[in-house]
Amino acid sequence: VVHCRYVNGIGAVQGGAVMVTFMDVTHVEHAEQMRRDFVANVSHELRTPLTALMGFIETLRGPARDDSQARDRFLKIMDDESNRMNRLVGDLLSLNRVESEERVRPKEEVDLTAQLASTLNSIRPLAESAGVDLNLVAPKAPLIVAGDPDQLQQVFTNLIENAIKYGGSGGIVDVSLTQVERDPAIRAPAIHIQIADKGPGIDSVHLPRLTERFYRGDNHRSRELGGTGLGLAIVKHIINRHRGRLRIESKLGQGTVFTVILPR
Ligand code: ADP
């Protein structure tokens, strides 16, 4: 059944008959609605820190002008809010870039073993400050795929940082790299990169929507931890570009496993 709303054109054809052509506008309307929702979300996300900044500037000009303690406290909050805006704009630009490149097949040779080891090294200080043990189990030999090294690094960084942020209470995050003969999701030989935490897990109602832009499992917690709600959307687009899949498995109270499946 085609959902037709508008008559696209009416014209006379031979023999006095009338020809009416219809245009299926369902997808056009859907895309338009998504665009409107996105603009509304971005505006809301930017306005929240902006309103805070404007409020504190006002206070610093007035009542807190001569109170050095209050001034330091407010400047710290203003610093946090500006950083939040900066992260949001950075993530929006990343999302825009990965979406526009999604159809361009990445061609560079990427050694996943080296890539993961270097990603873990740069995240280790964050894990240590959160009291999380970060482990990597990977083959010694190089494991090469055709890919975009910067984008794959972004995927691993986002997923491991999330595991520390949301699942860090479990005290351990395990990262592994394995080869499988055949993965049913991509029906081909594959490489699995798994990021597993033993945190509180994710309620199954959230799982199907987690990679949507601005979708957060726990709104309050994400904001408290400085999340933009765009990390997994970026991850999904990059994995699509690599013709891979993202699998998310979670059990409440037991933890979450994100598996990046890449064709070999
Ligand atoms: P955010 O900026 O909010 O972290 P993401 O797109 O990276 O945005 O993640 C979306 C949501 O997925 C998060 O707000 C969080 O609720 C949930 N999430 C992601 N990773 C985990 C995890 N390892 N454990 C529990 N929840 C997670």
Shape: flat
Give the SSE string.
Answer: EEHHEHEEHEEHHEE
Q: Give, in spatial order, the strands making up the sheet with the most strands.
A: 4-6-7-9-8
Structure class: alpha+beta
User: Mean of residue pLDDT?
Assistant: 91
**Number of DSSP strand runs:** 9
Short description:
With 264 residues, the chain is α+β, with helices and mostly antiparallel strands.
List the helices and strands and how they pair.
Layout: E1 4-12, E2 18-24, H1 26-61, H2 68-101, E3 108-111, H3 112-129, E4 133-137, E5 144-147, H4 149-167, E6 172-183, E7 188-197, H5 219-224, H6 231-241, E8 245-251, E9 255-263
Parallel strand pairs: 4-6
Antiparallel strand pairs: 1-2, 3-5, 6-7, 7-9, 8-9
Helix pairs in contact: 1-2, 2-6, 3-4, 4-6
The structure holds adenosine-5'-diphosphate.
Adenosine-5'-diphosphate binds next to helix 4 and helix 6.
Structure commentary:
- GO terms for molecular function: kinase activity.
- It is an enzyme of class 2 (transferase).
- It catalyses: ATP + protein L-histidine = ADP + protein N-phospho-L-histidine.
- Keywords: Kinase, Phosphoprotein, Transferase, Two-component regulatory system.
- This protein is an alpha+beta fold and 264 residues long.
- Helix content is 47%, strand content 25%.
- The chain is built from six helices and nine strands, in the order ββααβαββαββααββ.
- The strands form three sheets. The chain has a five-stranded mixed sheet, with helices on one face.
- The longest helix is centred in the N-terminal third of the chain and has 36 residues.
- The two termini are 39 Å apart.
- The model has no long low-confidence stretch (mean pLDDT 91).
- Bound molecules: adenosine-5'-diphosphate (ADP).
- Adenosine-5'-diphosphate binds next to α4 and α6.
